[in-house]
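Input record (one chain):
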Amino acid sequence: MNTGDIAFMLIATAMVMLMTPGLALFYGGLVRSKNVLGTIMHSIICLGVVSVLWVFYGYSLAFAPDIGGFIGNLQFVGLHGVGLAPGPYAGNIPDLLFCAFQLMFAIITPALISGAIAERMKFSAYLLFILLWCSIVYFPVCHWVWGGGWLGKMGALDFAGGTVIHINSGVAALVAAIMLGRRRGWGKESFHPHNLPMTILGAGLLWFGWFGFNAGSALSAGKLATLAFFTTQVATGAAVLSWLIAEWLVQGKPTTLGAVSGALAGLVAITPAAGFVGPLSAVIIGLVAGALCYFAVLAKSKLGYDDALDVVGVHGVGGVWGALATGLFASLAVNADGANGLFFGNPHQFVVQLVGVVAVIAYS
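The corresponding structure, as predicted from the sequence alone:
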C-alpha cells in the first residue's frame, strides 16, 4: 500500500463528508425562516441513517460479488471481510478506506433529494423514505455502475457519480415533488430565500468538497486526480458565467443566487466526466450546463411541479447532460483507462452513456 495515497484518500473522504453539512446550509438558506432547521435536519440525519445502513448491508449490496448484474450478494454484510488490507477496488489503499469514501457518496445522495420536498414532508416519513430509497434504488444502481454490475460491464463511464448520484437523485426528486404535491400557497405567496449568505457559504463548502468528490475518485494521488481536480474547477467556473449570462438576458440582471446555482450546475455536469475529458472539453461542458440548467429551472413553473429548491433542474438535468457529454468528449489521450467519445471517433460510447441514462431514469 502507498501511504501517500492513503493520506490523500483520507482527506478526500473527509472533504466529501463536509459536503453534506454544506448542502444543509445551501438548502437551509433557500427556504423560509420557519423551515430552516427542518430543512437542515433533512441533510444532517442522512449522516446517521445511511452510515448505519452502509455497515449492515449497504456496502455489500453495492460492492459485493455480483448477482445477475443487478446487485451485490451478502458477502460483506456487517462489513465481514472488509478490513485494512488492500481491497478489490483500490490496491493502494485499505479496503475499509474505499468503503468509507463510498459511504460519503451514499450519504449525500438522499440528502440531495430533500431539496425537492422541502417545507412539506413529515420527518418520520422522510426517515422511512431514506431507508427504502437507499435500499431499493441507490445500492442497486451503485452496483450497476461501480460494483461490477451490468452498466459497468457494458462500458458506461461515470467517474464520480453523474449517473449514480445526480440523475438518480434528480429523478427521485421529481417523482417525490409530484407525489407530495405543491406547498400551500405555491404560486400565490412569497417563497423567497430567507438567508442567501447562508446559501452562499453552503455553496462554497460544496465547491470545496467537490474536489474530494471528483479528484478522490481517482483513488490515488497522481496524474488522474490532478486532471479531475482541474476539470472540476474550470467546468464550474464556466457554468457560473453561462448561468449569469442567461439570467442577465432573460431577467435583465445577474444575481448572486444565480452565480452559486450555476456553480452547482457545473459541478454536477463535470462529475461523470472529470477524469475522462481534457480542460477545454470541461469548459464546454460547463458552459452548456449553466445555461441548460437555468432554463430547466425556469421550466418548472410552466410544467406545474413544485421542486422547492431546484433539485430536478440542477441535479437531474445537469446529471443527464454530464453523462451524455462524457459520451461526447471522453478521450483516451487524457485517460487510457477510459474510452474515446463520439467527438473522438467512437459513437458507440455515446450510445452506452444514453442507455445508462435511460435505465437509471426509468428505474429510479
